[in-house]
Amino acid sequence: MEVARYWRTTGQRYQLVGEVCPNCGNRIFPPRDVCPVCEKEARTPFTFSGKGEVYSYSTIHVAPEGFEKFAPYTVALVRLAEGPLVTAQLTDVDEDEIRIGMPVEMVTRVLREDGERGMLVYGYKFRPARPVSADAPKAAAAPARVTEPATNMSELSLVPQPTA
Amino acid sequence: MRDVSIIGIGQTPVGEHWDKSLRELGFRALHAAMKDAGVERIDALYVGNMLSGELTAQEHLGALIADFAGLRGIEAIKVEAACGSGAAALRVGYMAVAGGLHDFVACIGVEKMTDQQSGTVTSALATAADADYEALQGLSFVSINALLMRRYMHEYGYKKEDFANFAITAHANAMNNPYAMFHSPITARQFAEAKPIADPINLLDSSPIADGAACVILAPTAIAKEFTHKPVRVKATAIATDTLAVHDRRDPLYLEGGAISAQKAYAMAGVGPADIDLFEVHDAFTIMSALSLEAAGFAPRGQGVRLAMEGEIGLSGRIPITTMGGLKARGHPVGATGMYQIVEVAEQLREEAGANQVQNARLGMAQNIGGSGATVVTTILERI
Known about the structure:
Distance between the termini of chain A: 36 Å
Number of helices of chain B: 14
CATH topology of the largest domain in chain B: Peroxisomal Thiolase, Chain A, domain 1
CATH superfamily of the largest domain in chain B: Thiolase/Chalcone synthase
CATH class of the largest domain in chain B: Alpha Beta
Structural class of chain B: alpha/beta
Radius of gyration of chain B: 19 Å
Oligomer: heterodimer
Strand order of the largest sheet of chain B: 3-2-4-7-1-8-11-10-9
Largest interface: A-B, 35 and 37 residues
Order of helices and strands of chain A: HHEEEEEEEEH
Structural class of chain A: mainly beta
């Protein structure tokens, strides 16, 4: 991925920054300059909560270039709580646990590696939503099975953290 | 606007042409079509192609093929609309002849894919999707269709095997098409047990990558009979667009571009789905056949698969589709596919389809889809 392209899309990839239409209130992700509902200009940033549910999913066995070493991996359409669908990988989950309608939340992970000396491209993926309860002990909030180590990026405050 | 007809058709076999280059394939289809039309000179050449830059490091195909064909000096450009490039090239040629700018126009679809490894081709095909928000997430083009198929099955209650007849019918019809890539029938059991590509899509839901080229020659209908005794009228051609990414669609399971494009074509031709005798669908994946049948008005929403399950898509069914093998078994040389569909509809209307002839075919339709539905080209041809 080109460096300039990487940096100009960090807002959406790290934090799910989209837009809200000042005219009709439609929440837009990925950001686009014209609201697809009312067709008026929309440039007011809006940060999505990262909560949503699985609309559909597929496990990829034959991967595109740059993703071969990750195969098989599961991609999904996620319906965000605020309305839009987003295309992303699912992570930290066993394939046979995945269901349409499963609640998920956004995390930051490595999307791809551009060769030995190239960039690590970080972006959003989604994992099963952790239970949010003030009473739950901290350990219970941890995912039952972490299939991918958390990266340094995911420790940053950019990532929606469970409140438990 | 002038009435426009196809006066010549040509095609190369679809397959792995390791011994032929992109320009040779394009030229062979062009040469065959010019010979079929009996014309020695054309005024313009429109070349539908998607991936020559990605896979062959060659762009500028208009001039390339015009030069290679000995037509230096003529107007020639490439037309690109992902997998919809072929029929889009016909649309451009149609506008030139109908508008009175040219009398004799060649429209080619050409693609060269098999020189490259599958990972390279998989990435190249993903350029039809949204690079920043689909491909960057690791989605292959197959997986985008798989997301649609899974949701379709969930929403309408179908099982995987319900889609089998799309692939079985295509393979059966390809048996009698000498230009088809596969001449091997498949069974429901083979369909069920095929290797997964992107779950729930397996190998036998999917059309194969291939090399190939197809071509038609267009001329004003008023003079068409001077060149051929069986001209085929271009009754309608219409392009419509939708969002590039599936996640931006109002409803991912509705091919809005397909519906708009079909409605425009029906209006232009003054006909409706009930008048169409055969329909070449863009069966890149079995799910796309279902969605295209629904968008074009041959089935209500969620019922496209039922046409396959009930045997209505066969050569003597209610709406014959993939009559010469479709993308699934004729093969899917992506930018050429739309032109193959049009050549095959013309073959049917000229009663040259041999054992696969649809009886009394008068009106034939093709729907060529770019990406996951972002560009849809509908063409309606009529026997004169």
